[in-house]
Structure formats: C-alpha cells, structure tokens
Amino acid sequence: MSKPSLARGTRDFGPEQMVKRTFIFDTIRRTFQRFGFQPLETPAIENLSVLMGKYGEEGDQLLFKILNSGDYAAKLTEADWQQDARQFTTKISEKGLRYDLTVPFARYVVMNRGTLSMPFKRYQLQPVWRADRPQKGRYREFYQCDADVVGTSSLLCEAEIVMMLHGILRELGLTDFTVKINNRKILTGIAEVIGAQGQEGTLCVAIDKLDKIGKEKVLAELIERGFSPESCAGLEPLFALASEQAPFAELRSWLATSDVALKGIDELEEVWQLVEGFGLENPQMQFDVTLARGLSYYTGAIFEVKVNNVQIGSISGGGRYDNLTGTFGVPGLSGVGISLGVDRIYDVLEELSLFPDDQAITTRVMLSHFDAAAARYGLKVLHQLRQAGLNAEMYPDAVKLKKQLDYADRKRIPYVVLIGSEEMQSGKLTLKNMQTGEQKSLTSEEIIAELKR
Amino acid sequence: MSKPSLARGTRDFGPEQMVKRTFIFDTIRRTFQRFGFQPLETPAIENLSVLMGKYGEEGDQLLFKILNSGDYAAKLTEADWQQDARQFTTKISEKGLRYDLTVPFARYVVMNRGTLSMPFKRYQLQPVWRADRPQKGRYREFYQCDADVVGTSSLLCEAEIVMMLHGILRELGLTDFTVKINNRKILTGIAEVIGAQGQEGTLCVAIDKLDKIGKEKVLAELIERGFSPESCAGLEPLFALASEQAPFAELRSWLATSDVALKGIDELEEVWQLVEGFGLENPQMQFDVTLARGLSYYTGAIFEVKVNNVQIGSISGGGRYDNLTGTFGVPGLSGVGISLGVDRIYDVLEELSLFPDDQAITTRVMLSHFDAAAARYGLKVLHQLRQAGLNAEMYPDAVKLKKQLDYADRKRIPYVVLIGSEEMQSGKLTLKNMQTGEQKSLTSEEIIAELKR
To answer: Which residues make up the binding site for L-histidine (chains A, B) (predicted)?
Structure first.
C-alpha cells in the first residue's frame, strides 16, 4: 500500500485555511454584489475547440487536456501513431480544463446573447488550471475572482472598478495600497509621437522595468531592440511624468500631436472625475505610464493593484477590451473587467496579520459532560443553542473532561458548557470562557443571550 | 468560425440559477456549521493512484483522466503502442478528476492524521466529475455536499445526522419528507436467520424493489437467484414489518438468534432515543428494512431521504463505515457521513415553488437619470446606498428612461430611483417600486431607511 499524495502543484485547504479563504471570498463576493454584479458559474471542463488558440502558443501547451472517455484508442490507426504529438493529441483528447474565467465568460455571452440583458454585469469566483511548472506561490490549480461588464463603453464602469477595488481592499483591512491606472491608447500615442509607431509592445516591455533597472538601462534596452536615438530622446518627458499622480496637462502638451493619445487622456481624466463625483474618501489611485499588462488584449483603461507595505506582485489586474467575443464570431462587444488573486491576497493578509479572529463559520460553544446522564441532559440544550442560530457541538464520546476540553482547545472553540449532576439539579449550567478561564453559572437561555452578544 | 458549445453533460449556471443554487448551498453550509462541522476543500485533480480501484471496475472507467503535460508521447515505445488501451493509458495519464468527495477526504485524513484532532468533523461542498453517459438529470460535472465525522463510533453522530437533515430540509422549506434509516447489521442478521448467510447482497437487491413490484415478485426473484423456499418462507416477518415506523420489538423477536442483528437493533434504537432526547419537533424518520445503498461500503447505520410529494429519487444518502482509510493503509478509523444532491434538491424546490423571491445577492435598487448632470448627481447617492450595505447600481449609459427601466425590469431590480432636474433642486429623489408602480419623494437617507426595512 503506497502512501497517498497530492498531485504536484495542487493543495488541500484544511479548516483553518478555509476559514481565512472564506473571509476573502465573502468580502469580494459581497462587494461585487453591492455593485450590481450577478453570479455566473461555468463548467470546469470545456471543449478544446473553445480553449485552444485563445492564450497563445504557450497557453495551448499549458492547458490540461482530458483523455476521451470510453475506448478512446480503438479507432486509432497506424498513421495516427506516427503523427507528431500535437496532432496525435487531437485524436485522443477533445476536452480540457478551464484556463481562465474570461474565455468561458465570452463563450457564455455568445451562446446566450439572445436572452442576456445588456449591459451584462457578471462576477465569477472559480478555480482555473494551468500545467505550469509548480514553484513557490505558483500552483496548477488556483482560484480567480473576476468581475466584468460587457455591452457598454461607458467610463462609469472604469470608475466603478476603482470604487470596487477600494471597497474590497478596505473591507479586507488593507490601507496602504495603490490602484495603478494607465490607458492603452496613451501607450499607442507615445509610440506614435516618438516615431516608433506600432512598437508599443517593445516599448512597454522596456519601460515596465523602470522601477527596477532605472532610466539608463531602459534606454539601453530600447536601443538594443532597434529604437533610434531620436525615439529615445523623445521619451524624456515620460521619465519626468512617471512619478506624478495624475499629470494630465503635462501629458496633453507632450502628446498633443497624437489623436489616439489625446483620446486616452480624455478617458483617464473622465475616470478621475467620476471617482471624485462618487466622493470616495482618500482615493488611492495613481496614473502609471509604465503599466502595460500584456498589451494584446486591452484597448482602453488598464488597472493593477499594488500593496505598498508587502513585497509581493500585484494582487489584482484588469482593463477594457473592445472585442471580448470576436474570437467566437460576435464582434463589437466592449467590456471592462477586473480579476483578483486570492492566493496573493491571502499571503498579504497573513503577513500583515489582518485575518479576523472570530469568524462566524467556526464552532462557538461545545457541551461537555461527566457521564451518560449529563450527555443525555445536554441534548436538549444543544438543540436549543442551535435553534438560536449558534454553532454548537457536544463531544460525542464518554471520555474524561480533560480530553473533551483539549478537543475544544485544539478546535479553538471559545466557550464550553460543563454539565454535571449539580448543574442538572439546579438547571444552572457552567459556561467556561476558554481564553480567560472565567466560569459563570447560567441557565441555557442566559447562555444563549451571553453568546449572541 | 464555429459556434462555441458546452462540453457534453456540463452546464453553465447563469445569474437566475446561481441565486437559487446559492440559497441551497448557503442553507446546507450554515446547518453543517451549526453542528460543528468544519470546511475542507481538496483539489479537483488527484493522482490516479489515489482514485483507481476505489470505485470498482465501472468507476475506474468513469474517471476522467488527464493527459500528462509536456511532450507526453516522447518516451513512448513501439511496445507501448501495441499494449491494450488500459495499459497504454497508464503511460500517458497519471492524474484524474475527483470522482466523489469521500476518497479525497480519506486521503486528506491519512496525510494529516498526525495533526488532525479526532473526532474530526468536516464538510465539503465541491463538484465531482464522472464520464457517465449524460441524460436527463444526470450530468458529468455536478456538486456533492458531504458532511462526515471520523474517529468516533458514538451513535450521537448518527442522531446528529438525523437532526441535521431535518434542519436543512426544513430551512429549505420542505415539510413532507422522510428520513429512512436501516442498519447494515440487521440485513446481515436477516440473511443469517433465514439460512442465507453472506447472501445479503442478493437479498437486498430483491427487497429493495418491494415498493415497486410487490411481495410475490420479490420472492420469485429470490427463488430464481438460488434462495431456498425455506429461506423465502423465513422472510415472512419482513413483509409485515416493512410498513411500520420503528418496529424494534418485533425485529428483536424475529431475529433473536442473530447477535449481529441484535447489535444492529440496539444501535437503531439508541439513535431513536437520542433524537427523542434532542426534543426534535415532529420527527420524520422511518425504519426501512429494505434500505441497502450499495452494501459493500457501510457497516452500521444507513440513511436515505425521500421527498414524499415529488416524483424523484432520494435527495440524500449516507451511513456509517468502519474502515474509511483502510484502503490507504490506515485501518480502524470509524466514521459516519451524509451526502446531499444539489441538483435533485433544486428540482424539488422548483417543482414546489419553494425558492424565496427576495435574495440578498441581487441588486436592490437602480439609479436612473435623465441627463449627464443627473448622472453626475447620482454618483454620490450611489456611493451612499452602497456604504449603507445596499446592493445598488446606476445605468451606465445615457439612454432614454424607458430603456433604463426595461433593464431594471429584466434584471428584476425591485426599486428604481429617478433623478431629474426637479429632484436635484429639491434634494428629494423619486423612489419607484417596480412591482406596484408606487412612487415616493424621499431624501437619500429616507430611501436607505425605506430599503433597509
């Protein structure tokens, strides 16, 4: 009998982790709902025809593929055996595991566009799977928490994302964070203005590293990648802007010759005004001209969230895309969305000790008993406590009190009710606070009142 | 561009279904927690070495198997190609999808037995996957909701399962249900007493059909399967008992010569007494000597729940097993558990119109606006509503009021706030009840008070 093990890159979440993860999920879900987003769940298994070609060559390889069921090999021919692995795979596998929540969402919108009322606001909290090499902080199965609006290009949606991020992070107890914002159109415009039209991809890869490697090395990289010295000189204003919070006027004068850049600046400025209109207390948002997030996808605003007092990558990212469903033959649906990474948020809250102690999903009180009569007596009390909405349990076996209290301790149950012959006679039970050791003699009704406080 | 589709046997759950499913999941989860069960989540992907051989030959075939990642075919030899499909599969697939929640739970207990405090009470609400042929009501991806206690043989656990089932079903609004109970030991004893020792499997398959085919046909089937006429005659008392609610005395006299049967009856009777001790109002439990549930697994109590006023199979089942983790080399851990089927519960609640209208996860109020100034004015109101904990949204685009109200209607938003120039001047907004059409002129504080009522 070999010892059982977890598949590489996967995890169990035991009770203690689940309590903490539930705190995160509940906070995110509640805030999404508060902003009018509706829940959606899609299956873990999708047809490979839906998934393939949506995440680039590398993504296709990182898809978990499922063997066809039944006698999948029966129809294979000699010729099939001799094909290369990729073609062979298509003969034995037609399904795969969800790789993100965006492509299944696009599929859902396309398949239900006749009945969906637009704009459609959905959130989705589900695991995704990637056959990445597992390493610290990178798993093969992990949750994504997405909220998207499609069917409108209103910038109110961008402003709402800023509001929602502030709401979620503050409800999680985070105070020192920055919502970084850029606009794809500004990046396009910069490339135009410096005479490197269409090169914004290369430009972004380089300026994305500004924080880490500094201005000189960024310029060196651009030269190496074929940018002219004139283009590099044209970037001067960018380095001056990079540290300012909302330098829209400076941007306008620098990029005055690019229509697309001006459009991007207009959009950004409108988002700032809308957030101001909401009356958000102490906005923690910052324009970041170096923010890119895999350009190919986004067409307008780009978001990323950084926690400032913890060494960790971004905990959230998103942006506007103008063609979510184009790949499924339905062009022209604009949308904007945000995705939150639960694993990183977990690590941040752990490091900052922000998880609340007292969660509603754990047991609040345990009944202990000295003998069978006490256990029998306790049943009615137990039923009463539960009917009052309290999470309660009774130690199931007839063991010494010490062992019962140890169990309560290990399970971090804050209160224990002691039932012995004296208690049964008087009807006054002993309520013990497991943290302070304090004991009180109370009726079951008084115990309920005390614990519900 | 081909039209995208769902993989066979899988489903999307759109907002309306999600609201209803959430009602079911929340009710189950809350009740599990109220009884002191703690949450556990295990990965969707398990090593096939963990899954194979646990569900019988048929189960092995119904496991979804995942292709090894990377260049899985590179190391295959000519000899591998020529092996039969089953052996070939082991060369290209080492992982599979979770088939139920019990085997992963057993794996978790074995892997963490050094740190788990026993008895360990866990609940788990997660999807499972089976490569079954899809048909009405049978899916390839579906949720199970399990609660189990391991590490104790106390019959309090059985009684708690009865309590928990009553709690869940009544909170769901169900009134006419029956928790059927049997004990594996009684079935073993009956086979002993009628001289068909070890034949309880065949016996159960036959008497399981008593309801449908009647006594004569049950006996005919037993004769056909090799039971002697004497054995069949010995079954006479069973048919008399089958319709009684808790005929323990009759059982005792019939099965007096079988120790194991008497043990089973003692256990059952104790469960009945414990439930009585809890003071459960109007217990809906019934002894059912024909209840078997795939005997191989269970060693004590067996449960099943039937909804009486709906034509549907059982919505829940479970029982006690004495060797959960034996298959992973850790024998002797007794446990008892219950599993609820969300899809059938959904169908039952739908048929009986028991889903509540008003769920907390939907939008409570939408802000509409006549022009840009009104929209701008509405931002602060929107922020206020949300900060008061209300789910609120504003229609994002500048369109006619009619279109905004249509959106609210389709999304079943019960209240709309109308903002126009008059409203902005007076500070009194118009709150419209979308169901009655009634309109009130209120300040934003008054609106909050009204909607929170």
So the answer is: 100-102, 130, 144, 148, 293, 297-298
Q: Do the annotations mark residue B395 as ligand-binding?
A: no
Domains of chain A with bracketed CATH: 26-39+113-351 (3.30.930.10), 361-451 (3.40.50.800)
The answer to whether ipTM exceeds 0.90 is: yes
For residue A81, is pLDDT > 80? no
Checking if the pLDDT of B294 tops 80, the result is no
Q: For A388-403, what is each residue's pLDDT tens digit?
A: 999 999 999 999 999 9
Note whether A4 contacts B149, CB cutoff 8 Å.
no
pLDDT tens-digit readout, B185-202: 999 999 999 999 988 888
Contact A40 B18 (CB under 8 A): yes
Q: Which residue of A2, A8, A64 is the best one to mutate when testing the B interface, meaning the one whose CB has the most B CBs within 10 A?
A: A64
pLDDT at B100 over 70: yes
Q: Nearest CB to A18: which of B22, B40, B67?
A: B40
CA A244 to chain B, closest CA, distance in angstroms equals 27
Pairing verdict, β A316-321 and A301-307: antiparallel
What residues contact residue B7 under an 8 Å CB cut-off, 6+ apart? A43, A45, A46, A47, A95, B140
Q: Hey, what long-range contacts does A326-331 have (CB within 8 A, 24 or more apart)?
A: A327/A53, A327/A54, A327/A106, A327/B1, A328/A106, A328/A107, A328/A110, A328/B1, A328/B3, A328/B4, A329/A110, A329/B1, A329/B3, A330/A109, A330/A110, A330/A113
Reported as a pLDDT band with limits 50, 70 and 90, residue A1 is low
